[in-house]
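Ticket #4471: structure output looks truncated?

Reporter: J.K.
Steps to reproduce: submitted the chain below (247 residues) through the standard prediction queue, then opened the result file.
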Amino acid sequence: MKTVDKALQVLDQFSLENTEVGLSELARLSGLDKAATRRLLVAMSKHGMIEQNSDTRKYRLGPGFLRLAAIREATVPMAQAAQEVCDWLLEACDESVHACVPLTSSMATIAYCIPRRGNVINIVPADALYFHATSSGIAYLTFASAETRERLLAVKREKITEETRTSRDEVLQMIEQAHSRGYASCENSFEVGVSSMAMPFFTGQADPAGCIAIALPDTKLTEERRAELLPLLRESVERIEQSLKWS
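Returned output as attached by the reporter:
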């Protein structure tokens, strides 16, 4: 494993549930020895990517990422466009909505909106949205290039809930169904009691730039409700593609 790969493996252990992690725990979670982990932490600290809490001696993400995130958004202002579309979609459907983009082994939320009242689905922006377990992931796999799809299908698939499908054949069946529908739909595969619908959006590349999804309680996603939401989902894709076209 190369040094950069090891550093990214360490960074990947931080989440909203684990905002600060000690050296020994980081080494264990990353599968590295303590000496190697410490060297990586020291190197990343020099560039502001990692900082150490002087009270707990635990490590957390540093402010260096803020500068890189600002550069990325200034270059490709996708987050702003995605948030504007999510705001519109929330008003149109009154359900939880989010937009996400692909990472190496999952998708990451870049914008979201949640209704203020009623039986709604909470969106945790730091959650890794696994390709095999979410409608966004299946939508991405369905409309990605064959090369990208095969690479992502090689990623280890974990069972998140009792309904999560993990075999290659099962995932391919979901991809085939999404392809025939033009959108992906999942029920209880990422979170029990949650259903979702997702479609990809493109920015001129062979692979989707990301996906937009609507999440709602599984009891609410009737065929009638699905028919109501689908045109709104399609329009949200058109809106973000048009916005990014002129960015």
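Triage note (M.O.): checked the attachment and the full token line is present. The chain has two domains: 3-66, 76-245.
Status: closed, working as intended.
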